């Protein structure tokens, strides 16, 4: 395991920026005016989480985080398709 402070590494700052923008984006998920806005917000937050997991796995040299990121990306893609199909029938 790397004995380095997370904020010394520029990737650590990238993770913090992604977390901050995800928290800002959570407003759109919670209070979005339409269902489509909420779905796009959830997909965006999930995509940011995938990138966070990949960077964090690289920093900590624990590569099972990459496996988790790939699985989450697949679930995000399938979930987006299912929600799009639902919205097509509802609209």
From TrEMBL:
Transmembrane stretches, start-end: 6-27, 39-59, 65-84
Source organism superkingdom: Archaea
Keyword Plastid (UniProt): no
GO-annotated molecular function: sodium:proton antiporter activity
Keywords: Cell membrane, Membrane, Transmembrane, Transmembrane helix, Transport
Keyword Transmembrane: yes
Subcellular location: Cell membrane
GO CC entries: plasma membrane
Family matches, as Pfam families: MrpF_PhaF
UniProt topology in membrane: Multi-pass membrane protein
NCBIfam families per UniProt: PRK08381.1
The protein, known as: Putative multisubunit Na+/H+ antiporter
Species, as recorded: Thermococcus sibiricus
């Amino acid at each position: 395991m790397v004995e380095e402070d997370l904020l010394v590494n520029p990737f650590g700052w990238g993770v913090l920026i992604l977390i901050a923008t995800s928290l800002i984006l959570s407003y759109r998920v919670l209070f979005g005016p339409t269902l489509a806005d909420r779905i796009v917000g959830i997909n965006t937050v999930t995509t940011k989480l995938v990138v966070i997991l990949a960077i964090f796995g690289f920093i900590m040299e624990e590569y099972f985080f990459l496996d988790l990121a790939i699985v989450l990306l697949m679930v995000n893609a399938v979930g987006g398709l299912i929600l799009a199909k639902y919205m097509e029938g509802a609209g």
